[in-house]
Amino acid sequence: MADSSLMNYKTPVIVFTSVLLLVILYLSPYNNHNFIINNDLVSSNITSSTNSFTQNQNPQDNGTLSVSSTSTSVNTHIREKLTSSAERIEDDLARARAAIREAAQTRNYTSNKVEDFIPRGPTYRNPYAFHQSYIEMEKTFKIWSYKEGELPLVHNGPHSYLYSIEGHFIDEMDSEKNPFAAQSMDEAHAFFLPFSVTNMVSALYKPPSGAREPYIHVVTDYVGVVSKKYRYWNRSTGGDHFMASCHDWAAAVTSETPNNLFKNVIRVLCNANSSETFQPKRDVSLPEISLVTRTLVTSTQSRGSGSNHSILGFFAGGAHGPIRKMLIEHWKDKDDALQVHEYLPKGTDYGELMAKTKFCLCPSGYEVASPRVVEAIHASCVPVIISDHYVLPFSDVLDWSQFSVQIPMEKIPELKSILLAISDDKFLKLQKRVRQVQRHFTVNRPAKRFDVIHMILHSVWLRRLNFHLPA
Ligand SMILES: *[C@@H]1O[C@H](CO)[C@@H](O)[C@H](O)[C@H]1NC(C)=O
Ligand SMILES: *[C@@H]1O[C@H](CO)[C@@H](O)[C@H](O)[C@H]1NC(C)=O
Ligand SMILES: *[C@@H]1O[C@H](CO)[C@@H](O)[C@H](O)[C@H]1NC(C)=O
Ligand SMILES: *[C@@H]1O[C@H](CO)[C@@H](O)[C@H](O)[C@H]1NC(C)=O
Ligand SMILES: *[C@@H]1O[C@H](CO)[C@@H](O)[C@H](O)[C@H]1NC(C)=O
Ligand SMILES: *[C@@H]1O[C@H](CO)[C@@H](O)[C@H](O)[C@H]1NC(C)=O
Fold first, then answer.
1. 409 lines ligand 6 (CB under 6 A)
2. Any domain includes 388
3. pLDDT tens-digit series, residues 221-241
C-alpha cells in the first residue's frame, strides 16, 4: 500500500539482527565522569569468557565495554540534593545502565524480589544484560501518556485483525492500571503520544486518493498542542517521546511531517523497513499480530501443536509484492512437501496446517512485516523469514538465528533443498526455542511480565537508555 518511492536509501543486507552500535555518552551532573559504552547494552557479548549463551554475530562488534568509570551508584544523600526533575531522571537511567553493565559482567542479576522468569539460553543475545535491563525497567521506568486528544483518533486503536497490536498497546499505555504509568509528568522518563494512525486512516480516508496529508496534519497538530502546553517536548525536541502504530503508512506519515518534526521520536512501527525511514537505533520494530476478532489470540494460538509435523513447508497467501510473487511463481501447487498456495485448498484450516508444518514461510508482502511470523511462533512452527531490510522485532534482545531460518529472496528457487538440509536434530532445537519465545509474542490484557506489550516497552526503554536529556 505504502508508496516507498519517496525514500530511496540503500542498505545492502537484510537486517535480521539489529546490533545497535550505540554510543551512550553519559555526562553525570554531579561528578562529570564520562561513561562511554560503545555498543548496545543488551545485545553485546560483553564478557569474553567461554560462554555458550552469548553469541555475537556482528564481526565489528567485539562485545567489549569501554567504561571509564564504574562508580555510577549514587548514594541517597547526593540523590536528595538533586533538584531538577531532569537530573533525577538522568540519574535513574545512569543507575540502570550501571546495573545492566554489572549483571553482564558478573553473569548474574540483582533484584529485590523473587524472579518468576529468568531468561537464559542461546535464544537471548545476552541473557544477563537483558534480564537485568528488564528488572531495571520494572523498577524505574515511568511513562506519561498524554491525556490530550479525543476519540476516535486518539486514545483508541484497532483491536482485531492485522493492526490490532496498535489498539492494545495504546490501551495499555493509557490504562490507569499500567504499572509503568507516571503519577506526574515530572516523574516521567518517557512520554507517549497516544494517537492511532490506523484510526486516522479509517476515519479520514477518502477514496481513491491515498494522500497522506490529512494524517500528517493530525499528528503535527497533536505535537503542536502538547508542545505548547507542556515543556517536555521542547526539553528533548521529542527525543524522550514515543508513538506506536502498525499501519503501513505510519512510517511515512511521521517522517513527512513539516520540519521533520518526528526526527528524534522513538517510533514503534510494524513497517520496520531499514531501507526506508526506519532507523533501528532509534525506532522499535513492532510485531504484526493478527488477532481473531474479539479475542486475544491468533488463528494458530488455540490449536496446540501435535507432534505430527508431516508438512515440510507451508505458505498460503496472495502474490503481494515481489518476494511473494517470486515464491508463488516457483512453488505454487508444485510440491507435496513444500506447500505453497495462493488460496487455501477447500476444506483446510490455516491454523491447523501451520501446526502440522515444520517450517512456516513468512515472506514479506507489500510491506516487510508479516503476521505469519507470530502465527508460526504460536503454532510451534519454525518461521522462515524471506525478506529484505526487515528489522525483526526484539532483535536487540533475541537472537533470531536460534529460532528461525532466514532466506534471502534470491534463494527462493533453492527453498526446498535448504529446508531439507536442516537435520531433525537442528529442527527440534529450533522448535524448542520457538516455544521458548512464545511468551514474548503473546498478547495479554492487562499485559504481563515478558509478554509482547512489555517486550515492546522494553525496546522503548533500551532506546530511552541511549538518549540523554540536554543539560
Ligand atoms: C563472543 O563470545 C563467545 C563466547 O565467549 C566467543 O566465542 C566469540 O568469539 C565472541 N564473539 C566476538 C565477536 O568476540
Ligand atoms: C574492541 O573494540 C574497541 C573499540 O572498537 C577497542 O578499543 C578494543 O581494543 C577492542 N577490544 C578487543 C579485545 O578487540
Ligand atoms: C545470582 O543471584 C541470585 C540472586 O541475587 C543469587 O540467589 C544466586 O546465588 C546468584 N548466583 C550466582 C551463581 O552467583
Ligand atoms: C516550545 O517551543 C515552541 C516553538 O519554539 C513554542 O512555540 C512553544 O511555546 C514552546 N513551548 C513551551 C511550553 O514553552
Ligand atoms: C501424520 O499426518 C499425516 C497426514 O495428515 C498422516 O498421513 C500420518 O499417518 C500421520 N502420522 C502419524 C504418526 O500420526
Ligand atoms: C523496503 O524498502 C525498500 C526501499 O524503499 C523497497 O525497495 C522495498 O520494496 C521495501 N520492502 C518492502 C517489503 O516493502
1. no
2. yes
3. 999 999 999 999 999 999 999
